[in-house]
Specification:
Blueprint lengths: L6 H11 L2 E9 L2 E8 L2 E8 L9 H18 L7 E7 L2 E7 L4 E2 H4 L11 H23 L12 E3 L5 E3 L26 H9 L10 H17 L12 H9 L15 H10 L10 H9 L12
Antiparallel strand pairs: 1-2, 2-3, 3-5, 4-5, 6-7, 7-8
Length: 304
Amino acid sequence: MGAAPPDEAVAALEQMWGSVTCELLGDRRGSRAWKVSGARGIAALKANNPDAALGRDKAAELAQEDRHLLALIDAGALGSGYRVDAGAWEGGQWLAVRWIEGTSLWTAMAVARGLEGDGPSVRSWLLSVARSRAGQLERLHSVGWAHADVQPTNTLVTRDGRAALFDFALSCGPETAGRLPYRGALTHTTAPEIADAILTTPADTHIQARPPADIWGLGASLFWCWTGQRPVPYADDTPRTDKLRAIADGKRLPFDDARPWPFPHFEEIITACLAPVANDRPSAAELVTLASRGSLPDTQVLPA
C-alpha cells in the first residue's frame, strides 16, 4: 500500500479534476512522490516525510521549489501548465507538477552503453537528447537562472526523444534573499568551481550556481549515462571531500578508458561541457547548435 499522500493535496487536486487515484512512486531522502491520476489530468505529487531522519529540511525545499516555479513561469522559462498546485499540510509542504511520461536518462541510454548501440539511429538519437536537454537549459539561462542540479535522475526522456528537466528546488536565480543556502547537489555531476566553493567556504554559506555549472552537469550526465562510468575517477567509498577535491582539480576519466564505442561528435560535445574552467565551456545555445549537426528531428523515437 505505502504511505498515503496528504489529504490536503488530494482534496485540492480532486477539486480540479474530480476523483483521483494515487500511486506511491518513491519514499527516500526525506520526501515522498506519487503519481496522481484523474479524468482531467495527471500530476507528479511530492511531499516531505515528517517522520524522516533529521537532515535537509524537505518542507522548506518544497516551498522554495514552488517559489522558483512561479518565478520561472513568470519569466517565461517554464510553461504555465507545468505547476499544478502547491500548499501546506499538517506535516509540512506539498507540490504538484504536470506528469511527464518518460524514462530516466540512465535507463533510456542503456541501448547505447554496449557495442550493439553503435548505429546511425542511436547516434542521431543521442544527439537529439543532448540538443533538447541543452535547449531547456538555454531557456533557464536566458532569464538569469541556473538549474543547479543537472543530473541523470532529474531528466526524463520521452518517446519522441526529447529530454525533459525537472526538480527546480535547488535552482539559483537573480534573487538570493530568503532562499536556502545552495551547497551543491549530486557529487558526481558537481562542476569544478562549485566543488571548490564547497570545500573553501563555511557550510552555511550560499554558493550561487551559474549557467556554466549546468553545462558541466550536462556533460557529466551524458558521459556517465553513455559510458556507464562517472566522468571523474574515484572509488565509491572515497570520502565526499576527496571526491570534491578530485573534481575541483579537473581530473577526468579519459574516453579511451570509458567509451563503449567511438563517437567523435558526441565526445566533442561532452568534452566541451567538461572544460575545467567555467568560461571555457560553451553556452547552452551553442550546444544546441553543435548537437543539431547529425541529429534527427524531435519526432525521432527511442531506438529499439
